[in-house]
Write a structure and sequence with these properties.
The protein has helices at about 5-15, 25-35, 40-50, 75-85, 90-105, 110-120, 130-150; strands at about 20-25, 55-60, 65-70. By secondary structure, the protein is mostly helical. The chain folds into two domains: about 5-70, 2-Layer Sandwich (Phenylalanyl-tRNA Synthetase, Chain B, domain 1); about 75-150. The longest helix has 22 residues, at about 130-150. The protein starts with a helix and ends with a helix.
């Protein structure tokens, strides 16, 4: 396991032990625990604790500053609709959402792999599409697959 994996697992353990699914940590203390620089903590937070993965991260700066990490409940219908209105739903964000749905046991591993394979950028290589068209297709495919799977469960 990499350092980033260890930091991620530690934070997830803290969250699972919290009755509110919310923790406050100090970046410098966490960096000291893992003997790394604070920017490594920033990297883990910005790549592994994103909204698409079901987390909300707030940062408070200053002498007594902290980072609050909140594990979100599964998305409501309104949140899904808002998410799919986003212009920036690309393959990376879709993959993160699939991981979140899998972690929440809303889809199976097999369903996640199938959906991920459909959404891969390589599927668009032979097509003359610009980035906006690729995002639109990714968004529509993802929405239709998620809607179908969640409707059946």
């Amino acid at each position: 396991m990499t350092l980033a994996d260890n930091i991620e697992e530690y934070i997830k353990t803290l969250l699972s032990l919290s009755s509110s699914q919310c923790i406050d940590i100090q970046r410098s203390e966490l960096a000291g625990k893992f003997n790394c620089v604070p920017s490594q903590i920033n990297y883990v937070l910005s790549t592994r604790f994103t909204l698409e993965r079901g987390y909300l991260v707030e940062s408070r700066r200053g002498g007594r500053g902290y980072i609050r990490i909140l594990r979100l409940k599964p998305f409501s219908n309104e949140a899904w609709e808002e998410l799919f209105q986003e212009e920036e739903l690309d393959f990376r964000k879709a993959r993160d959402l699939l991981r979140y749905l899998y972690d929440e046991k809303l889809i199976s591993r097999r369903e996640a792999y199938i959906m991920q394979s459909v959404l891969q950028d390589e599927n668009f290589l032979d097509l003359s599409l610009n980035d906006e068209q690729k995002r639109l297709i990714t968004r529509r495919l993802f929405y239709n697959m998620i809607t179908a799977v969640l409707r059946e469960s």
